[in-house]
Specification:
mainly alpha; about 100 residues
């Protein structure tokens, strides 16, 4: 026995799209910060060169390369937009030509 499929109304679909965006934001933030050096380490650096900082000469500070982070965000945004368009598109109306021909 099959259960009838329940459709979401427009307000519920909006909540699902916003919630899905928040989940993708958290997943993207986590995925792009893997193996990166950030946060408080509890001690001062041993050597500080004020003329040329290590941060200025390094291409990136550990973790993923910047273009990989960009691709991760691009994929997550594309998936979110695709799912959002699928959820928010208007349902097709019944074919009016069938009703008028009878």
């Amino acid at each position: 026995m099959r259960m009838p499929r329940r459709r979401l109304n427009f307000a519920q679909r909006i909540v699902v799209v916003v919630g899905l965006g928040a989940v993708f934001y958290l997943v993207g933030g986590w995925a792009t910060s893997l193996d990166s050096f950030s946060g408080w380490v509890g001690y001062a650096p041993l050597q500080v060169n004020t003329a040329t900082s290590t941060y200025e000469t390094a291409p990136f500070l550990g973790g993923l390369h910047p273009w990989v982070r960009f691709v991760i965000w691009l994929v997550l945004i594309a998936v979110w937009v695709g799912v959002s368009l699928t959820l928010l598109r208007s349902s097709p109306l019944d074919n009016p030509s069938d009703e008028s021909s009878s």
